[in-house]
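Q: I'm writing up a methods section and want to include an example of the input and output format. Could you take the sequence below and give the corresponding predicted C-alpha cells, formatted cleanly so I can copy it straight into the document?
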Amino acid sequence: MRDYTKLDAIIYTDELVLDIYRLISFFPAIEFYGLTSQIRRAIISVPSNIVEGSFGESQKEFYRFLEIAFSSLKESHYQMQLVIRLGFWRLKNSKIVMINSIKLKKFWQDC
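A: Here is the clean output for your methods example:
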C-alpha cells in the first residue's frame, strides 16, 4: 500500500481537477448534461484511479490503475481540445490546464 498523498501525480491531478471545474463553470447552460458532465467524469476519474490503485496489493495492480487513470487523462485532453474549438474556452484558459497535463504526462513516462 502506498501513501497516495505523497505521489506527484495526485498533486498535479488535484490541481488539474480544480482548474477544469472552475473553467467549465463558464460553459453554456445547454452543455450541463453534455460536455460538462462528460469532462467532469473523465477528469475526476484520473485522481480517483490513482488513489484506488495505491491501495492495491501488488505493483502490477497499481500500474494497471495508473494505465486507467492515464486513459482518462487522454480522454479529457480530447474533450478540452473540443471545448477550445467550440469556443467555450479561450486559449489562455486552456494553457493553465495543459501545463498540469504536461507534468502528468512526464510523471507517467517516468513510471
